[in-house]
Design brief:
222 residues, mainly alpha
Length: 222
């Protein structure tokens, strides 16, 4: 029999460890080799299913005692396994959402800072436009559209990069690079959030600047 791999120091790794086999080893083989090594072509397996309302604590106690009486016997509860998987998934999901919110917050703050700074460094320009007759409505319309363009451009770039990242993430799980379904709703939500942040960051300082005296606006040192 050819030995493909030995696992040293992995007691319990395969589920039963070496319990009950004090100087023994575990060998992973297929059914044919198992029969050739042991002279047996059968093995015992129990798959108990509990009815609704059954006393789970007494059942677990009985199963543990049963496994202890028969060397090499192990017990696996699919219910406990499913619960552990759900808890692990919930933790991973919470960490993922935390990372998404953190990165998203940084992105929104960068957008707000860029647009806000853009308005404050153009106080003189705004004063000149008001001096030559631009109304407050026209001023708002011009700069709000500019803010919307910032948000749309940022959304397009972010959507493309996000879609590329999605393709690579799917490739990591399937070992195949292929196009995936476009996440339309997340893209729309991110676009609305980015455009809304740009409009808000434009409207707040613009409202303050539009109330300044025209002469003071022109004389402001940027």
């Amino acid at each position: 029999m050819n030995v493909l791999k030995t696992l040293d120091g992995y007691d319990g790794y395969l589920g039963i460890g070496n319990g009950g086999f004090t100087n023994g080893v575990q060998v992973i083989v297929d059914d044919a080799i198992y029969e050739r090594l042991t002279g047996k072509d059968t093995y015992s397996e129990f798959l108990p299913t509990l009815n609704e309302g059954a006393d789970r604590e007494n059942f677990d106690t009985f199963i543990e005692a049963f496994c202890n009486r028969i060397p090499g016997t192990t017990f696996l509860s699919y219910e406990e396994t499913d619960q552990q998987l759900k808890e692990s998934f919930a933790q991973i999901q919470m960490l993922a959402w935390g990372l998404i919110l953190f990165v998203g917050l940084i992105g929104i703050l960068n957008i707000i800072n860029t647009v806000y700074t853009n308005i404050h460094t153009r106080v003189t320009e705004i004063g000149m436009q008001r001096a030559i007759g631009m109304s407050a409505d026209s001023l708002y319309k011009t700069f709000l559209w500019e803010g919307a363009y910032y948000g749309i451009i940022a959304s397009v770039i972010g959507s493309v990069l996000g879609y590329v990242c999605t393709i690579f993430i799917e490739a990591a799980t399937s070992d195949t690079i292929q196009l995936v379904a476009i996440p339309v709703m997340p893209i729309l939500e991110a676009t609305l959030l980015a455009v809304g942040a740009c409009l808000l960051a434009t409207a707040i300082p613009l409202r303050k600047i539009s109330k300044m005296n025209i002469v003071d606006s022109i004389e402001t040192v940027e």
